[in-house]
Write the structure tokens for this entry.
Amino acid sequence: MKFFVDTADVDEIKGLLDTGLLDGVTTNPSLIAKSGRNILQVLEEICVLVPGPVSGEVTATNAADMIREGEKLASIADNITVKLPLTFDGIKACYALSQKDIKTNVTLCFSANQALLAAKAGATFISPFVGRLDDIGSNGMDLIADICQIYSMYPTIETEVLVASIRNPIHLLEAAKMGADVATIPAKVIHQLFNHPLTDKGLEAFMKDWESTGQSIL
């Protein structure tokens, strides 16, 4: 499974780079607004830092403008992926950009039928939102299971399942067990993945015993 970090905060990205865990980055208009920076500048900076896919989202709502915005975003760097909403116009834009060999990430997916539309339009990634489904009383992981099953039945589908709106480590674990291709994870949740009380307890015991030897490796 590939790990993307869901952020437009360059410092957060820099803090994770040395782990070797990052395969890409996803942003959206809300994250860009939170950063307080110009979208083109921040995406360019992220693309230099991270060689993998970096999703930058269009803000237009009609297909023609989405395509123009997508082409402009794609011109920033070779590793830009144009993020598009899963609407009728978004799918039209996805198809048009895919025909130009521009990578696309179709976002705000909440049903398996929507995911099938994105795949047929040539999307590079489909982003189903598990956390937001949980918020309204649905089981978001059921959607991931459905999409993975459908895609696996058709070898011609190359669209990767990018699990989005991850709220906790359980979401990630379940997505990995289902065979999802990618998870885009907030930096906070990535740090939570390291935590286990037995790891802390074991390390504390090792260090206490080591201290008693009076030795030093360095």
Remarks:
- The chain is about 50% helix and 15% strand.
